[in-house]
Design brief:
Number of strands: 0
Number of domains: 1
CATH architecture: Up-down Bundle
Shape: globular
Strand content: under 5%
CATH class: Mainly Alpha
Distance between the termini: 10 Å
Number of helices: 16
Largest sheet: none
Protein backbone atom coordinates (compact mmCIF):
# COMPACT_ATOMS: atom_id res chain seq x y z
CA UNK A 1 0.00 0.00 0.00
CA UNK A 2 1.15 3.52 -0.40
CA UNK A 3 1.24 6.50 1.82
CA UNK A 4 -1.72 8.88 1.95
CA UNK A 5 -0.64 12.28 0.70
CA UNK A 6 -2.20 15.69 0.59
CA UNK A 7 -3.84 17.14 -2.48
CA UNK A 8 -5.13 20.61 -3.17
CA UNK A 9 -5.89 22.91 -6.06
CA UNK A 10 -3.07 24.92 -7.61
CA UNK A 11 -4.53 28.16 -6.40
CA UNK A 12 -4.70 26.87 -2.83
CA UNK A 13 -1.22 25.74 -1.90
CA UNK A 14 -0.66 23.89 1.38
CA UNK A 15 -0.81 26.19 4.39
CA UNK A 16 1.98 26.71 6.87
CA UNK A 17 1.98 24.38 9.84
CA UNK A 18 0.48 26.23 12.78
CA UNK A 19 -0.41 23.32 15.05
CA UNK A 20 1.67 20.64 16.72
CA UNK A 21 3.11 18.00 14.42
CA UNK A 22 1.52 15.36 16.68
CA UNK A 23 -1.90 17.00 16.96
CA UNK A 24 -3.65 14.67 14.44
CA UNK A 25 -2.90 11.71 16.72
CA UNK A 26 -5.25 13.23 19.30
CA UNK A 27 -8.10 12.42 16.91
CA UNK A 28 -9.17 8.78 17.45
CA UNK A 29 -10.16 8.25 13.82
CA UNK A 30 -6.84 9.36 12.39
CA UNK A 31 -4.87 7.65 15.17
CA UNK A 32 -6.51 4.31 14.41
CA UNK A 33 -5.86 4.64 10.70
CA UNK A 34 -2.25 5.73 11.26
CA UNK A 35 -1.41 2.74 13.45
CA UNK A 36 -3.09 0.33 11.03
CA UNK A 37 -1.26 1.92 8.10
CA UNK A 38 2.16 1.63 9.75
CA UNK A 39 1.54 -2.07 10.37
CA UNK A 40 0.48 -2.54 6.76
CA UNK A 41 3.49 -0.58 5.44
CA UNK A 42 5.74 -2.85 7.49
CA UNK A 43 4.12 -5.93 6.00
CA UNK A 44 4.55 -4.54 2.50
CA UNK A 45 8.28 -4.02 3.03
CA UNK A 46 8.58 -7.56 4.39
CA UNK A 47 6.82 -8.77 1.23
CA UNK A 48 9.23 -6.81 -0.96
CA UNK A 49 12.25 -8.29 0.81
CA UNK A 50 10.78 -11.78 0.66
CA UNK A 51 9.98 -11.62 -3.06
CA UNK A 52 13.38 -10.21 -4.00
CA UNK A 53 15.25 -12.72 -1.87
CA UNK A 54 13.18 -15.71 -2.98
CA UNK A 55 13.88 -14.87 -6.62
CA UNK A 56 17.63 -14.93 -5.94
CA UNK A 57 17.17 -18.43 -4.47
CA UNK A 58 15.24 -19.57 -7.53
CA UNK A 59 17.57 -17.99 -10.11
CA UNK A 60 20.57 -15.68 -10.19
CA UNK A 61 19.57 -14.12 -13.50
CA UNK A 62 19.76 -10.31 -13.06
CA UNK A 63 16.87 -9.95 -15.52
CA UNK A 64 14.56 -12.22 -13.52
CA UNK A 65 15.52 -10.54 -10.25
CA UNK A 66 14.84 -7.08 -11.70
CA UNK A 67 11.49 -8.32 -13.05
CA UNK A 68 10.26 -8.64 -9.45
CA UNK A 69 10.26 -4.85 -9.22
CA UNK A 70 8.80 -4.58 -12.71
CA UNK A 71 5.97 -7.01 -11.89
CA UNK A 72 5.01 -4.91 -8.88
CA UNK A 73 4.74 -1.72 -10.90
CA UNK A 74 3.63 -3.05 -14.30
CA UNK A 75 -0.09 -2.96 -13.33
CA UNK A 76 0.25 0.82 -13.29
CA UNK A 77 0.12 0.75 -17.08
CA UNK A 78 -3.08 -1.27 -17.06
CA UNK A 79 -5.34 0.10 -14.36
CA UNK A 80 -4.04 3.25 -12.66
CA UNK A 81 -6.01 5.73 -14.79
CA UNK A 82 -9.35 3.89 -14.49
CA UNK A 83 -8.62 3.45 -10.77
CA UNK A 84 -8.21 7.22 -10.40
CA UNK A 85 -11.48 7.85 -12.20
CA UNK A 86 -13.28 5.26 -10.05
CA UNK A 87 -11.90 6.83 -6.88
CA UNK A 88 -13.49 10.15 -7.89
CA UNK A 89 -16.85 8.52 -8.66
CA UNK A 90 -17.58 5.72 -6.15
CA UNK A 91 -17.74 5.20 -2.39
CA UNK A 92 -14.06 5.08 -1.52
CA UNK A 93 -14.65 3.12 1.68
CA UNK A 94 -16.24 0.17 -0.12
CA UNK A 95 -13.75 0.36 -2.94
CA UNK A 96 -10.84 0.21 -0.49
CA UNK A 97 -12.36 -2.77 1.32
CA UNK A 98 -12.36 -4.66 -1.99
CA UNK A 99 -8.78 -3.77 -2.90
CA UNK A 100 -7.43 -4.53 0.59
CA UNK A 101 -9.18 -7.93 0.59
CA UNK A 102 -7.73 -8.66 -2.85
CA UNK A 103 -4.21 -8.12 -1.49
CA UNK A 104 -4.87 -10.33 1.56
CA UNK A 105 -5.85 -13.25 -0.69
CA UNK A 106 -2.91 -12.75 -3.08
CA UNK A 107 -0.29 -12.53 -0.32
CA UNK A 108 -1.84 -15.44 1.58
CA UNK A 109 -1.93 -17.81 -1.41
CA UNK A 110 1.66 -16.92 -2.33
CA UNK A 111 2.73 -17.60 1.26
CA UNK A 112 1.12 -21.04 1.30
CA UNK A 113 2.58 -21.99 -2.09
CA UNK A 114 6.03 -20.89 -0.95
CA UNK A 115 5.83 -22.93 2.26
CA UNK A 116 4.94 -26.01 0.17
CA UNK A 117 7.79 -25.32 -2.30
CA UNK A 118 5.44 -24.88 -5.24
CA UNK A 119 6.81 -21.51 -6.39
CA UNK A 120 8.82 -21.14 -9.59
CA UNK A 121 10.28 -17.84 -10.85
CA UNK A 122 7.27 -17.28 -13.09
CA UNK A 123 4.77 -18.17 -10.35
CA UNK A 124 6.48 -15.65 -8.08
CA UNK A 125 6.28 -13.00 -10.79
CA UNK A 126 2.59 -13.81 -11.37
CA UNK A 127 1.61 -13.34 -7.72
CA UNK A 128 3.81 -10.27 -7.42
CA UNK A 129 1.90 -8.88 -10.39
CA UNK A 130 -1.46 -9.75 -8.79
CA UNK A 131 -0.43 -8.01 -5.56
CA UNK A 132 0.74 -5.02 -7.57
CA UNK A 133 -2.60 -4.94 -9.37
CA UNK A 134 -4.46 -4.68 -6.07
CA UNK A 135 -2.07 -2.01 -4.78
CA UNK A 136 -2.45 0.12 -7.90
CA UNK A 137 -6.23 -0.08 -7.77
CA UNK A 138 -5.98 0.90 -4.09
CA UNK A 139 -3.61 3.85 -4.51
CA UNK A 140 -5.73 6.77 -5.77
CA UNK A 141 -8.62 6.13 -3.38
CA UNK A 142 -6.24 5.60 -0.44
CA UNK A 143 -4.41 8.84 -1.12
CA UNK A 144 -7.67 10.75 -1.35
CA UNK A 145 -9.19 9.84 2.05
CA UNK A 146 -6.85 11.81 4.33
CA UNK A 147 -9.02 14.98 4.29
CA UNK A 148 -11.98 12.82 5.35
CA UNK A 149 -10.42 11.39 8.54
CA UNK A 150 -8.89 14.50 10.10
CA UNK A 151 -10.10 18.02 10.92
CA UNK A 152 -9.07 20.69 8.37
CA UNK A 153 -6.73 22.46 10.81
CA UNK A 154 -4.85 19.16 11.31
CA UNK A 155 -4.63 18.25 7.65
CA UNK A 156 -1.06 19.44 6.99
CA UNK A 157 0.48 17.80 10.09
CA UNK A 158 -1.49 14.64 9.27
CA UNK A 159 0.33 14.49 5.95
CA UNK A 160 3.64 14.81 7.79
CA UNK A 161 2.69 12.00 10.16
CA UNK A 162 1.75 9.78 7.23
CA UNK A 163 5.24 10.35 5.91
CA UNK A 164 6.76 9.57 9.31
CA UNK A 165 4.79 6.32 9.50
CA UNK A 166 5.82 5.24 6.03
CA UNK A 167 9.48 5.96 6.68
CA UNK A 168 9.45 4.22 10.07
CA UNK A 169 8.12 1.12 8.30
CA UNK A 170 10.64 1.59 5.52
CA UNK A 171 13.46 1.76 8.04
CA UNK A 172 12.47 -1.26 10.14
CA UNK A 173 10.26 -3.38 7.86
CA UNK A 174 13.07 -4.62 5.59
CA UNK A 175 15.33 -5.46 8.52
CA UNK A 176 12.46 -7.30 10.22
CA UNK A 177 11.70 -9.05 6.95
CA UNK A 178 15.32 -10.14 6.65
CA UNK A 179 15.23 -11.62 10.15
CA UNK A 180 11.95 -13.44 9.44
CA UNK A 181 13.27 -14.82 6.15
CA UNK A 182 16.52 -15.97 7.76
CA UNK A 183 14.61 -17.70 10.57
CA UNK A 184 11.52 -19.07 8.80
CA UNK A 185 11.71 -18.38 5.06
CA UNK A 186 10.01 -16.08 2.57
CA UNK A 187 6.69 -17.92 2.85
CA UNK A 188 6.22 -16.76 6.45
CA UNK A 189 7.06 -13.19 5.41
CA UNK A 190 4.32 -13.36 2.76
CA UNK A 191 1.79 -14.65 5.30
CA UNK A 192 2.70 -11.88 7.74
CA UNK A 193 2.11 -9.37 4.97
CA UNK A 194 -1.34 -10.86 4.37
CA UNK A 195 -2.11 -10.50 8.08
CA UNK A 196 -0.88 -6.89 8.11
CA UNK A 197 -3.79 -5.75 5.93
CA UNK A 198 -6.41 -6.71 8.50
CA UNK A 199 -5.84 -3.62 10.62
CA UNK A 200 -6.75 -1.36 7.69
CA UNK A 201 -9.69 -3.59 6.76
CA UNK A 202 -10.98 -3.43 10.33
CA UNK A 203 -10.68 0.36 10.32
CA UNK A 204 -12.52 0.67 7.00
CA UNK A 205 -15.25 -1.73 8.14
CA UNK A 206 -15.95 0.30 11.28
CA UNK A 207 -15.50 3.72 9.67
CA UNK A 208 -18.78 5.59 9.37
CA UNK A 209 -17.81 7.65 6.37
CA UNK A 210 -19.79 10.90 6.15
CA UNK A 211 -21.64 11.63 2.97
CA UNK A 212 -19.66 13.78 0.55
CA UNK A 213 -21.42 15.43 -2.34
CA UNK A 214 -20.01 14.30 -5.64
CA UNK A 215 -18.99 17.09 -7.95
CA UNK A 216 -19.05 14.74 -10.89
CA UNK A 217 -21.09 11.66 -11.76
CA UNK A 218 -21.36 9.42 -14.78
CA UNK A 219 -19.26 6.81 -16.51
CA UNK A 220 -15.65 6.04 -15.73
CA UNK A 221 -14.74 6.65 -19.36
CA UNK A 222 -16.19 10.17 -19.31
CA UNK A 223 -14.41 11.02 -16.06
CA UNK A 224 -11.15 9.68 -17.46
CA UNK A 225 -11.48 11.72 -20.66
CA UNK A 226 -12.14 14.87 -18.63
CA UNK A 227 -8.97 14.32 -16.63
CA UNK A 228 -6.86 13.65 -19.72
CA UNK A 229 -8.26 16.75 -21.41
CA UNK A 230 -7.20 18.87 -18.46
CA UNK A 231 -3.66 17.46 -18.50
CA UNK A 232 -3.31 18.03 -22.23
CA UNK A 233 -4.15 21.72 -21.84
CA UNK A 234 -2.01 22.43 -18.75
CA UNK A 235 1.72 23.09 -19.45
CA UNK A 236 2.64 22.98 -15.75
CA UNK A 237 1.21 19.49 -15.47
CA UNK A 238 3.19 18.28 -18.47
CA UNK A 239 6.40 19.69 -16.97
CA UNK A 240 5.84 17.82 -13.70
CA UNK A 241 5.12 14.56 -15.52
CA UNK A 242 8.21 14.94 -17.74
CA UNK A 243 10.44 15.57 -14.72
CA UNK A 244 8.95 12.56 -12.96
CA UNK A 245 9.40 10.26 -15.95
CA UNK A 246 13.02 11.28 -16.53
CA UNK A 247 13.89 10.50 -12.92
CA UNK A 248 11.98 7.24 -12.51
CA UNK A 249 13.36 5.66 -15.68
CA UNK A 250 16.97 6.37 -14.77
CA UNK A 251 16.78 5.82 -11.00
CA UNK A 252 15.13 2.38 -11.01
CA UNK A 253 18.37 0.41 -11.37
CA UNK A 254 19.47 0.55 -7.73
CA UNK A 255 16.27 -0.82 -6.12
CA UNK A 256 15.87 -3.37 -8.92
CA UNK A 257 19.43 -4.76 -8.71
CA UNK A 258 19.91 -4.46 -4.95
CA UNK A 259 19.09 -8.16 -4.31
CA UNK A 260 22.06 -9.08 -6.51
CA UNK A 261 24.34 -6.67 -4.63
CA UNK A 262 23.11 -8.06 -1.30
CA UNK A 263 23.42 -11.74 -2.20
CA UNK A 264 26.88 -12.20 -0.58
CA UNK A 265 25.53 -10.78 2.70
CA UNK A 266 22.56 -13.10 3.15
CA UNK A 267 18.88 -12.40 3.78
CA UNK A 268 19.59 -10.47 6.98
CA UNK A 269 22.13 -8.31 5.15
CA UNK A 270 19.60 -7.60 2.39
CA UNK A 271 17.04 -6.50 4.95
CA UNK A 272 19.61 -4.31 6.71
CA UNK A 273 20.58 -2.64 3.44
CA UNK A 274 16.95 -1.79 2.74
CA UNK A 275 16.67 -0.64 6.34
CA UNK A 276 19.59 1.78 5.86
CA UNK A 277 17.89 3.11 2.75
CA UNK A 278 14.76 3.69 4.82
CA UNK A 279 16.71 5.33 7.64
CA UNK A 280 18.26 7.65 5.07
CA UNK A 281 14.80 8.53 3.80
CA UNK A 282 13.65 9.19 7.37
CA UNK A 283 16.64 11.47 7.98
CA UNK A 284 16.01 13.27 4.70
CA UNK A 285 12.35 13.78 5.60
CA UNK A 286 13.37 15.39 8.88
CA UNK A 287 15.96 17.68 7.25
CA UNK A 288 13.94 18.67 4.19
CA UNK A 289 11.88 21.57 5.61
CA UNK A 290 15.02 23.21 7.01
CA UNK A 291 17.01 22.71 3.79
CA UNK A 292 14.11 24.08 1.77
CA UNK A 293 14.49 27.48 3.48
CA UNK A 294 17.92 27.87 1.86
CA UNK A 295 17.39 26.40 -1.63
CA UNK A 296 14.81 26.64 -4.39
CA UNK A 297 12.84 23.54 -5.37
CA UNK A 298 14.79 23.20 -8.61
CA UNK A 299 18.18 23.43 -6.91
CA UNK A 300 17.17 20.98 -4.23
CA UNK A 301 15.96 18.43 -6.79
CA UNK A 302 19.10 18.90 -8.91
CA UNK A 303 21.40 18.39 -5.93
CA UNK A 304 19.54 15.26 -4.78
CA UNK A 305 19.56 13.77 -8.29
CA UNK A 306 23.33 14.29 -8.52
CA UNK A 307 23.76 12.71 -5.08
CA UNK A 308 21.59 9.74 -6.03
CA UNK A 309 23.55 9.32 -9.28
CA UNK A 310 26.84 9.29 -7.35
CA UNK A 311 25.51 6.70 -4.90
CA UNK A 312 24.15 4.54 -7.74
CA UNK A 313 27.62 4.48 -9.28
CA UNK A 314 29.23 3.77 -5.90
CA UNK A 315 26.87 0.86 -5.17
CA UNK A 316 28.41 -1.08 -8.04
CA UNK A 317 31.97 -0.43 -6.89
CA UNK A 318 32.12 -0.73 -3.09
CA UNK A 319 33.31 -4.05 -1.73
CA UNK A 320 32.47 -3.98 1.98
CA UNK A 321 29.09 -4.28 3.67
CA UNK A 322 29.63 -1.23 5.91
CA UNK A 323 30.37 1.03 2.92
CA UNK A 324 27.37 -0.36 1.06
CA UNK A 325 25.21 0.52 4.06
CA UNK A 326 26.49 4.11 3.94
CA UNK A 327 25.79 4.26 0.20
CA UNK A 328 22.22 3.08 0.76
CA UNK A 329 21.73 5.58 3.59
CA UNK A 330 22.82 8.49 1.37
CA UNK A 331 20.69 7.14 -1.48
CA UNK A 332 17.62 7.12 0.76
CA UNK A 333 18.26 10.72 1.81
CA UNK A 334 18.43 11.84 -1.83
CA UNK A 335 15.43 9.71 -2.82
CA UNK A 336 13.07 11.32 -0.31
CA UNK A 337 14.19 14.82 -1.31
CA UNK A 338 13.42 14.18 -4.97
CA UNK A 339 10.09 12.45 -4.43
CA UNK A 340 8.92 15.00 -1.86
CA UNK A 341 9.34 17.82 -4.37
CA UNK A 342 7.72 15.85 -7.19
CA UNK A 343 4.84 14.70 -4.97
CA UNK A 344 4.02 18.18 -3.73
CA UNK A 345 4.07 19.43 -7.31
CA UNK A 346 1.73 16.60 -8.34
CA UNK A 347 -0.63 17.31 -5.46
CA UNK A 348 -1.02 20.95 -6.42
CA UNK A 349 -1.16 20.63 -10.18
CA UNK A 350 -4.92 20.13 -10.58
CA UNK A 351 -8.22 21.33 -9.04
CA UNK A 352 -9.50 19.32 -6.08
CA UNK A 353 -12.35 17.68 -8.01
CA UNK A 354 -9.71 16.06 -10.23
CA UNK A 355 -7.67 14.93 -7.21
CA UNK A 356 -7.57 11.17 -7.70
CA UNK A 357 -7.30 11.36 -11.49
CA UNK A 358 -4.39 13.81 -11.34
CA UNK A 359 -2.56 11.61 -8.85
CA UNK A 360 -3.27 8.53 -10.95
CA UNK A 361 -1.54 10.19 -13.91
CA UNK A 362 1.44 11.09 -11.75
CA UNK A 363 1.61 7.51 -10.42
CA UNK A 364 1.37 6.17 -13.95
CA UNK A 365 4.49 8.09 -14.95
CA UNK A 366 6.38 7.42 -11.70
CA UNK A 367 5.68 3.74 -11.25
CA UNK A 368 5.47 3.03 -14.96
CA UNK A 369 8.91 4.54 -15.37
CA UNK A 370 10.16 2.33 -12.55
CA UNK A 371 8.73 -0.77 -14.25
CA UNK A 372 10.25 0.01 -17.65
CA UNK A 373 13.55 1.11 -16.14
CA UNK A 374 13.85 -1.96 -13.90
CA UNK A 375 13.44 -4.26 -16.89
CA UNK A 376 15.92 -2.30 -19.02
CA UNK A 377 18.60 -2.12 -16.32
CA UNK A 378 18.13 -5.81 -15.52
CA UNK A 379 18.61 -6.73 -19.18
CA UNK A 380 21.73 -4.56 -19.37
CA UNK A 381 23.11 -6.13 -16.18
CA UNK A 382 22.58 -9.58 -17.68
CA UNK A 383 24.68 -8.66 -20.72
CA UNK A 384 27.31 -6.34 -19.24
CA UNK A 385 27.27 -6.92 -15.48
CA UNK A 386 25.73 -5.13 -12.52
CA UNK A 387 28.49 -2.49 -12.06
CA UNK A 388 28.21 -1.45 -15.72
CA UNK A 389 24.42 -1.20 -15.50
CA UNK A 390 24.66 0.99 -12.39
CA UNK A 391 27.27 3.19 -14.09
CA UNK A 392 24.98 3.70 -17.10
CA UNK A 393 22.05 4.43 -14.78
CA UNK A 394 24.06 7.12 -12.98
CA UNK A 395 24.99 8.67 -16.34
CA UNK A 396 21.32 8.59 -17.39
CA UNK A 397 20.32 10.45 -14.21
CA UNK A 398 22.77 13.26 -15.00
CA UNK A 399 21.77 13.34 -18.67
CA UNK A 400 18.09 13.45 -17.75
CA UNK A 401 18.67 16.34 -15.39
CA UNK A 402 20.30 18.31 -18.20
CA UNK A 403 17.61 17.37 -20.71
CA UNK A 404 14.68 18.68 -18.63
CA UNK A 405 16.13 22.09 -17.75
CA UNK A 406 13.20 23.82 -19.48
CA UNK A 407 10.67 22.03 -17.30
CA UNK A 408 11.22 23.78 -14.00
CA UNK A 409 9.44 23.27 -10.69
CA UNK A 410 8.95 27.00 -10.38
CA UNK A 411 6.58 27.40 -7.44
CA UNK A 412 8.46 28.87 -4.51
CA UNK A 413 5.48 28.38 -2.21
CA UNK A 414 5.63 24.61 -1.87
CA UNK A 415 5.34 23.58 1.75
CA UNK A 416 7.63 20.58 1.52
CA UNK A 417 5.93 18.29 3.98
CA UNK A 418 7.69 15.09 2.92
CA UNK A 419 5.53 12.53 1.27
CA UNK A 420 6.48 9.10 -0.11
CA UNK A 421 4.94 6.81 -2.81
CA UNK A 422 5.32 3.04 -3.36
CA UNK A 423 8.63 2.18 -5.00
Amino acid sequence: MTEAIKTSAPESLPPKLTTSAWAPLTEPLFRSLWIAAVISYTGTWMQNVGAGWLMTQLTMSPLMVSLVTAATTLPVFLVILPAGALADLVDRRRFLLITQSWMVVAAGVLGVLTLYHQVTPWVLLLFTFILGLGAVMNDPAWQAITPEVVRPEHHAPAVALNSVGFNVARAFGPALGGLVIAAAGSGVAFLLNAASFFGVIFFLYRWKRPHFEQVETGRVRDALVAGLRYVRGAPQVRSILIRTGAFSLAASSLPALLPILARPHGATGYGLLLGFFGLGALAGAALLPRVRTHFSVDRLVAFDILLFAAMTFAAGRVQTFSLLCLVLFASGTAWIGILACLNIAAQTMCPSFLRARALSMYLLVLQGGMAVGSTAWGALATRAGVPTALLCSAAALVAGLLAVRRHRLTSQQFELTPSVVRD
